[in-house]
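Could you please consider the sequence and fold appended to this message?
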Amino acid sequence: MKNLSIRVIIGILFSAIGMVSLFVTREALTAAIWLSFGNGLILSDLRFKQVDENGNVYSKPVPKMRLYTAIFLIVLAVLLLGLQIFLDMQSAGAGAAH
């Protein structure tokens, strides 16, 4: 529990909200936004501990590929949110025309 930062805890919370929204509302796009952002936060800051040859415990750095994947997931969440807003605006405009 010591290696869980506030970003990792928020990421777990967002991922849980995404899973619940998928099962309750069955809206895949909304769930994908929550899950993508939550998993991006988890990947960006989750650190593992390792013991060196002297017996000292240290935190391993976040690998670059995992950091790039986290950035991709967060950018994807923002793009999906923009798509969700666009689709909602279109459906609201179509509803007002009738």
Notes: The CA atoms of residues 45 and 91 lie 37 Å apart. The chain is about 75% helix and 5% strand. Residues 6-95 form one domain. The chain has one domain: 6-95.
